[in-house]
Amino acid sequence: MRARAAASVALAGIIAVMSAGCAFVTPQATQEINDVVDGASGRVGDVAIENALAITEDGETVNVVFSVVNESDDNVRLDISYDEGSVQLSEQVWVDAGEQKTIGVPGDRQVIFEGVDAPLGSLMPVYVQYGDAEGNELMLPVLDGRLDEYRDLLPTPQPTVDPSPTPTNTPTPFPTPDGDTEDSPGDETDTEEE
C-alpha cells in the first residue's frame, strides 16, 4: 500500500511539473519593455535617445527628429553624424544637465542632413556620441509627411545669410585753408573747368 501511495504522490508531482513547465522555460512578456513608438531608441552614456526618426520629402534632405534625456549632472554636446560612402555629415546639439527635450519639431532647431541616400521605408544609419562615452549607431526609419503627425516635421530650408556688403573706399572731404572742402588726396575725381 505504501508503494501505491508513493507512486500516486510521484505521479501527481510529475503532472504538476509538466503542466507548469511552460512557466519555467518561457520568459514573462511583462518583463520585457518594448518601444511603442515609430522610431529607434538607444543610449549613449547617461543620455537616452528616444523615438528617433528621419523625416524627408525626397529621400535626399532629411530632418532627424528625436527626444533626448540627459540624465547626467553635466551639460553634453551630442554629436549626430551620418557617414555613408562619400557623404559624411555631422551636427551638434547641446543638452543641459537633467534636461529633456525634443529636437527637430516646429519651433526648435532641426538637424538637417542634405545629400543623403534615404529612400522612404528604408532605415538610415545615424551615429550618436558625446565626450568619452561609447557611441551608438541607430537605424532610423525613413518616413515622409503623408501622416498628419509628421507633416510639420518635414525639413524646412534654413535661412541663408547674405554676405555683408564689401565696404567701398569713399573719399572723406577735408577742409582747405579758405574754409571750403575738397576731396581727400588720392581721389581721382575729374572736374572740368569752364
TrEMBL record:
Q: Which residues form the signal peptide?
A: 1-23
Query: Is Signal among the key words of this record?
Result: yes
Q: Which segments show compositional bias classed as Pro residues?
A: 156-176
For bias type Acidic residues, the affected ranges are 179-194
Give the span(s) annotated as Disordered.
152-194
**Which keywords annotate this record?**
Signal
Name used for this protein in its record: DNA modification methylase
